[in-house]
Amino acid sequence: MTAAVITAAATIIAAVIAAVAVSGGDESPPTASAAGPAGTSTTASASVEPSSTPSEPSADPSDPPLQTLPADTVSTTPHARPRLIATPDRGPEGALVTLNATGFAPDEQIRITFRDSGGYDKDLRDVTAGPDGSLAAEVHVPKETVGGSDTPVFIVYSLDDDDADNQVADTPFTVTD
Question: For every residue of 9-49, which 3-state class applies, written as one string?
Answer without folding.
Answer: HHHHHHHHHHHHHHHCCCCCCCCEEEECHHHCEEEECCCCC
